[in-house]
Amino acid sequence: MQIDPILRKALAGISGILVTPFDASDNVAPARLRPIVDRAVAAGVHALVANGNTGEFYGLTTAEAETMVHAVAEHVGGRIPLIGGVGRSIGDACALARASVAAGAQALMVHQPPDPFVAPRGVVAYVQRIAEAAAGLPLMLYLRNDGIGIDAIVKLTQAPGVAGVKWACPTPLRLAEAIRRAEPDIVWVDGLAEPWAPPLFAVGARGFTSGLINVWPAHAVAIHRALEQGNYREANRLIGIMAAFEDIRAEEQNGTNVTGVKAALQLIGEDCGHARPPSAWPLTDVQMAKMREKLKAWGLALVR
């Protein structure tokens, strides 16, 4: 798909996956996100994503997800591209695609269907239906399971409207094969955040998704800059600094992924509320002590 070069560059940069704030009554509270958005934009994050996994997409109703994409669009105010996450049932995905278009999103991120009965050709049909609802917006496919096979992945990249793939599988050699076989204008992005950026960048991915941007966006931008300059030593050094943050998020079978981000936001005075079940909440005392120690080491101001 031919897309605007400026948007293409943004899609190949850092996709900042925003949290979804909740209030004490468990309602979405999008106003709490404004300072987080402002800080990410000021730091140089290339694009922001509403309704990604760090945004607890599968813990939201479709109505809540629609509320969030509209609110984030208002917060971003056109300063950088907004990507709207869509998925779940085909009806929900198409409804959310239309809502994201209405909100002013510049692209859509299509979550891989979690249905237990997924046929490779069924995924192609799923993406095609979403493309029809997307009114011409570029689609970024979020691939968390490459078990559908390279043939199916390549076919997905040929679907109308598909501009790129966020590769969230720890399989760089399979990624390299997919890149070789796909059309050259497809944007390939590391969907496993900063720690996997160097090996996936080395085989052809550009940019990465990031939950760190909610808390410390300048550090994510520094990692991306080092990779763009081909300075893998510096990129790995910077990743080492934030590795403990990602380690906490990976505990309990990744069940503290969002928990860690929201706990860090509480500690720096930007409370976005709890993480909904089935995520863990809150961090354990040991996890919280580690998080506090790391944020202090990073020089971020703690409120308690």
Characteristic terms for this protein:
single chain; 304 residues; alpha/beta; TIM Barrel; eight-stranded parallel sheet; 13 helices; 8 strands; globular
Quickly describe the structure.
With 304 residues, this protein is of the alpha/beta class.
Structure commentary:
The protein starts with a helix and ends in a 7-residue tail after the last helix. The chain has a single domain (5-240), classed as Aldolase class I (TIM Barrel, Alpha-Beta Barrel), CATH 3.20.20. It is 47% helix and 12% strand. Strands 7-6-5-4-3-2-1-8 form an eight-stranded parallel sheet. It contains 13 helices and eight strands. By secondary structure, the chain is an alpha/beta fold.
What does the secondary structure layout of this molecule look like, with pairings?
Blueprint: H1 5-11, E1 14-17, H2 34-43, E2 47-50, H3 62-76, E3 82-86, H4 90-103, E4 107-111, H5 120-133, E5 139-143, H6 150-157, E6 162-167, H7 172-181, E7 187-190, H8 197-202, E8 208-210, H9 217-228, H10 232-249, H11 251-254, H12 257-267, H13 285-297
Helix pairs in contact: 3-4, 4-5, 5-6, 6-7, 9-10, 10-12, 10-13, 12-13
